[in-house]
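Board notes, transcribed. Complex of a protein with zinc ion.
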Amino acid sequence: MKFLSRIFRRKSCGVCGKKPVKPSYYYNDKDEKIPVCYKCVEYAERRAYQKA
Ligand SMILES: [Zn+2]
């Protein structure tokens, strides 16, 4: 289940957890590449995520 949830998380926005619309990719504080939907890009920038 852990493996499955990891795959699921990769497909969803790393900020809001919803299916990302026009995602941009960022590295979060765990150095994981996460999709961030266009609505959450501002939040990702504020969290100082590195753009992938
Ligand atoms: Zn989002």
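The pocket of zinc ion is lined by residues 13, 15-16, 18, 20, 37, 39-40 (CB under 6 Å). Strands lie at 24-27, 33-36, 50-51.
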